[in-house]
Amino acid sequence: MPPPPNPAPYFPPPRVTLPSGLEILRTFSGAVIFLEILFGTIVWILVASTQIPLALLQGWVMFVAVTAWFLSIVFLSVFLFGYANRIAVNWNQADFIFHGATFVFYFGAFLLQAATTSLHYFPRKFNSTTQETILSGREYNISIAASIFAFATAICYGCSTALALRRWRLNHS
């Protein structure tokens, strides 16, 4: 009986240009991913601290912020704990696709958060004689901060996309 075939030729080796372990935090990409996590945390804390006057808009902002935050932690953990060297994936391409898609979603979330902020002076009830606005003064300030941090987070994802594209194109050829 012949020996079983070696499975190694069927699985290509992983393509990784980012270092594993704590060394990833010393790269520009690692630092930007850390900023994505930090700013993303601030965004969803700020959005959650308001009364959510427009659930449809801010619900999407919360979904994008929490999902991107969680996936960024998972992505960074893959490199911190060295799993990138064990999983046969083109990590440069995966990095580009993940950050590119997340940039698009986060920029959309920023636009929705800014739209919610811009509705500050609209009355809460259109047929009411009271002057209660959609956002109180405190919520308006929190919403401004959430918009600014959502924009900063989107910029971080955009920078990660550019760095990932550069790495992918340099190692693709």
Give keywords:
single chain, 173 residues, mainly alpha, 4 helices, elongated
Determine Rg (CA atoms, Å): 21 Å
Number of domains: 1
Oligomer: single chain
Average pLDDT for all residues: 84
* Secondary-structure class: mainly alpha
Main location: membrane
Subcellular location: Membrane
GO molecular function, one term: structural constituent of myelin sheath
Organism: Chloebia gouldiae
Quick structural overview:
The protein contains 4 helices and no strands.
Can you put this structure into words, describing what you see?
This protein has four helices and no strands. The protein has one domain. 64% of the residues lie in helices and 0% in strands. The chain is mostly helical. The model has no long low-confidence stretch (mean pLDDT 84). Helix 1 (28-48) runs antiparallel to helix 2.
Topology:
Elements: H1 28-48, H2 55-80, H3 91-118, H4 137-172
Main location: membrane
Transmembrane segments: 24-47, 59-84, 96-122, 142-165
Pfam family, one: MARVEL
